[in-house]
């Protein structure tokens, strides 16, 4: 799929995700380190036996404690049996443990069937309300940036094509907003303290006018079910909107013979765009290609974002899904994806080198969930399979090139 452009294209890059949508959203998640609050009531007792006794008393109506240990970091490990299923026990446990000045992590006790280990880490995660004005101004700035950038995708021979800019910008922002709100709405429904999306305008050096957006997760996910559901919600919402917009863009595009010379920007095909292109236009004659309408270019970009986000590595959306399924073993899949990106950079597009470096530096591992005892249900494995199928359909091995 190609787009002839009468002006020289500026440098490109997608969005840097370490969450929902750098050429992705991902939810940006930082490694969790509990911080102590200044409030005296949240300071844990200094005497270890006093602290252990306070924690045991706090959880006794939910957990029958049979043993404990502590370590030099101040963490206290309580072992025993829960009086409620783990998915019902964690939130009341957390409320009680936080009142004692700790943050609880729950997991199955190694080697003991039906027993659990609660690790109480000193400190309580502070909960503050963010200033949403920042989100609003970044959103407005990104709209302006994307519309301005989209003017280069029109047919005007005399200047900027604002009609093309508006169509391109509206399509890109619709897909990105669907992606980010998928994360946000599901996160809120599951009780995850996710922020509103922070959109990232890139008006000068970016060919698409944005690096996407990020959602900040202020603490670890409660459990793997929540992690998987929030992780897949963004790409799935963006995909479901991008596909009909892609079809609309194809219906507005034409097939023309490419000029012998001139600036031409080539948008690489995924399995989906190639299949739908053939369905719309049939096999193309030698020397001819699709001259993409601005809506088609924007939908292509939205699907590119979806594909990169679903790569199962680090803290990309696909990395969240992989961790939900594989746990700590997901880090080995991250190494495989880093190797694949490096190979793609050598063989097809140098842009993948940046992604390989980013994943190598920041995205090899994933923070644990707070409640690791909750098991996935069949629906979660079905969602993970859907994520893999969408990734196969929309991933673009060679996104951009010039002819």
Quick tags:
single chain; about 400 residues; alpha+beta; Gyrase A, domain 2; 3-stranded antiparallel sheet; about 15% strand
Describe the structure.
- The protein is α+β, with helices and mostly antiparallel strands and 403 residues long.
- The protein folds into 2 domains: 2-32 and 130-402, no CATH class; 40-122, Gyrase A, domain 2 (2-Layer Sandwich).
- It is 46% helix and 16% strand.
- The protein contains 11 helices and 12 strands.
- A 4-stranded antiparallel β-sheet has the order 3-4-6-5, with helices on one face.
- A hairpin with a 5-residue loop joins strand 3 and strand 4.
- Helix 4 (162-189) runs parallel beside helix 7.
- The protein is elongated and about 80 Å long.
- The protein starts with a strand and ends with a strand.
- Residues 3-43 have low confidence and may be disordered.
Class by helix and strand content?
alpha+beta
Side by side, the strands of the main sheet go 3-4-6-5
Low-confidence stretches: 3-43
> How many E strands?
12
Total number of distinct structural domains = 2
Average residue-wise pLDDT: 84
Specify the helix fraction band. 40-55%
* Shape type: elongated
Beta-strand content:
15-25%
Instruction: Work out the radius of gyration.
Output: 24 Å
**Number of contiguous helices:** 11
Termini Cα gap: 12 Å
